[in-house]
Write a structure and sequence with these properties.
Blueprint lengths: L1 H9 L5 H11 L22 H13 L3 H20 L1 H7 L12 H22 L3 H13 L2 H15 L2
Amino acid sequence: MIKEYIEAKYGFKVHTAYIAEVKRDLGLLMYDAPNAVEELKQPRKYPIPEKVEAIKDALRSFDIFSDEKKRMYESIIVFAQIVLFPAEAKFSLGVDRYNIQELSGDENRKNAINDLKMAIPKVKLISKDNGLVEELEKFIQQKDEEQFNVLVTRLRKDLYK
């Protein structure tokens, strides 16, 4: 499907290993290949930029990012809630990356802000709404409920358009 799309649109072929490498770099969920080996005989080769862009285009066109978009947007909301309500978050939210129960409110806020910043490149990739990144950056700067509500509305519109 992806290989055929790229060949028809761009006129060149891509190896499935290149598709897997791009998906891996994007942090998309990957399943174990049935023919996977424990040790590679040769180091992985990364595709040239032209092929990377073609693969990303194909992934977008097949809406491969929709599940990833949902997960990403849910994470953004959770991290924003931690920023706004660190004390309440300790009792209602669980985050796998760090133990929210053991860290102080300031440490949780700092970690959540960092995670929001780290989400920006992925949002740029999975969303065609350039204003969404601007709203996320505004929230990171302002850290207030009004901007949070604007951000949630923007996320909702992008997800369910």
